[in-house]
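Subject: for your reference before the review

Hello V.,

The reviewers asked for a structural picture of the protein, and I figured it would be easier to keep everything in one thread rather than splitting it across files. Below is the amino acid sequence we used in the manuscript, unchanged from the supplementary table.
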Amino acid sequence: MSGFSHISVMLYETVDSLVTDPDGIYVDCTTGGAGHSREILKRISENGRLIAIDQDPDAIAVIKERIGSDKRVTIVHDNFSNLSSILASLGIEKVSGIMADLGVSSYQLDEGSRGFSYNYDFPLDMRMSKEGMTAADVVNTYSERDLTRILRDYGEEKFASRIARNICTVREKEKIETTFELAEIIKNAIPAATRRTGGNPCKRSFQALRIEVNGELEKLKNTLDDMFYSLEKGGRLSIITFHSLEDRIVKKAFQEYCKGCECPRSAPVCICGKTPEGELPFKKKLPSEGEIENNQRSRSATLRCIEKL
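And here is what came back from the structure prediction:
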């Protein structure tokens, strides 16, 4: 798997925000090609430790190859949504830092057989773990109403209902099995004038299906508390998101952790007793113009970080 390529987005900004204790325990929830992990290992001492998690078996093979010989590294083949049980199984109560890069790796996009991309004609798959429901299962079995909801909510696609209707019409005659078949259906549902602007018309729908297949937003929502409360005092959680839906979830959760007293302003003293649990080292960071120029896939990335008080 030496050909597994992925350019780590905001590499130094992310690791700078994360590593505050060189002797600490750090978790990379989405290790992928191990770019961020290798930089973390440069920053921690011989006493430090790194838990490298990924759900993709191809990524696990690469992680073993690239950092598996380092005695400070523990490699875990699992989804980060199981973070609490992963740490418990390793006898770890609290950690110094946790990071997650929520983007699809360049390898997954460029390896056409994984079925993530509309640029290659392969079976509709999109499973990061290579297990469970595929994108083909979604487009061939979901109701028109559910397909519309997914495309609208997860892809922010304004022609969601037209695309869903087209999918249902086509699948009545034959099963939709490949990325090119689906791409053609999407293109035919979008007005010609719209197709000529704003990039590939399939982008939003393919994003929506990938999110649904992998349960990405639900797993993120359900795991943020586990991430934050697994931190020791002064520990940090750094997350890179790639679209507004993810970023909104992270931003809202971080705001909740930073909330203090909720008593009315008219109250002479605080009676709720609520104090902030976290603080933001910075509001957010975006990739530099130079990084975007070198890696176009970084252009939609947002880095947010929170420190536990």
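For the response letter, the relevant points are probably these. The chain has two domains: 11-101+216-308, 114-214. The first helix runs from residue 11 to 18.

Happy to draft the paragraph if you're swamped.

O.
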